[in-house]
Design brief:
Strands 7-8-10-9 form a 4-stranded mixed sheet. It contains 10 helices and 12 strands. A hairpin with a 5-residue loop joins β2 and β3. By secondary structure, the protein is α+β, with helices and mostly antiparallel strands. Helices cover 36% and strands 19% of the residues. It folds into 2 domains: 54 residues, no CATH class; 197 residues, Enolpyruvate transferase domain (UDP-n-acetylglucosamine1-carboxyvinyl-transferase, Chain).
Length: 272
């Protein structure tokens, strides 16, 4: 692989599982879900070694058989709720996680001034103090995930001082910055870098989700905003987060799915 890529690694790995002979992937992605896929395929009779390292070796087999397998927890969903705690000055315990998969996220939350408590399969994030500025650069695992970049930006926009976020994985990942600016954020994008001057608070606005992770970040920003916020194009969010609004409601958020302006007015009347 010229570039370490999760999508490329898992596609080659699946193709090689039943290909004749030995396939060797060098500079392979090391993300937890690459390892999980290798474990799943091995449980079906594949012969894959080295997942989680730079080199994966796959010896092709003639057939696979059925298997019962439990996939790992989604570390990006877990990280989103962890940053929701930071943005809203909340106290959130995320259960059914693998803390090792969240180490880069935990490290940045500690730099922001949050308290983080780890147990075997859960993490608690408490944001009782003002957020501090920091710098972050997205990198392949075990670095800070690109899929958490919008969420940390939403938090840093409320942190004291100036923060810098550098995106080294995907181009055009700052499309959501205009929406955060509409809510009062002070963010300047230069190429693959965002320079963020913290503001005291967000204010409610009508905004649109440009993609999956940015949409989730805009929702958690809206939870911290003064007034009402509507987020359109939530189909992106629903693709990657199951019952997102219901889980947030369970944490005390005033959030609801609405179809019409009339539904929105009812919601405003109800929550005051």
């Amino acid at each position: 692989m010229d570039v370490s890529s999760v999508g490329a690694t898992i596609n080659v790995m699946m193709a090689a599982t039943m290909a004749e002979g030995m396939t060797i992937i060098e500079n392979s992605a090391k993300e937890p879900h690459v390892v999980d896929l290798a474990n799943f395929l091995n449980s079906m009779g594949a012969n894959i070694k080295g997942a989680g390292t730079d080199v994966i070796r796959i010896k092709g087999v003639q057939k696979l058989h059925g298997s019962d397998y439990t996939i790992i927890p989604d570390q990006i969903e877990a990280g989103t709720f962890m940053f929701a705690a930071a943005v809203t000055k909340g106290d959130v315990t995320v259960k059914n996680v693998i803390p090792k998969h969240l180490e880069s996220i935990t490290a940045k939350l500690l730099e922001l001034g949050c308290e983080v408590e780890e147990a075997d399969d859960c993490i608690r994030v408490v944001a009782s103090k003002p957020l501090k500025h920091t710098h972050v650069k997205t990198l392949p695992y075990p670095g800070f995930p690109t899929d958490m970049q919008p969420q940390i930006t939403a938090a840093l926009a409320l942190a004291g001082g100036t923060s810098i976020v550098t995106e080294s994985i995907f181009e055009n990942r700052f499309k959501y910055v205009d929406e955060l600016t509409r809510m009062g954020a002070n963010i300047k994008v230069e190429g693959n870098t965002a320079i963020i001057d913290g503001v005291p608070r967000y204010t409610g606005a009508s905004i649109s989700a440009p993609d999956l992770r940015a949409g989730a970040a805009l929702v958690i920003a809206a939870l911290a905003a003064v007034g009402f916020t509507t987020v359109d194009d939530i189909k992106y969010i629903e693709r990657g987060y199951e019952d997102f609004h219901l889980k947030l409601q369970g944490l005390g958020a005033q959030i609801e799915l609405v179809q019409t302006e009339k539904d929105f007015m009812k919601f405003k009347l109800r929550v005051g």
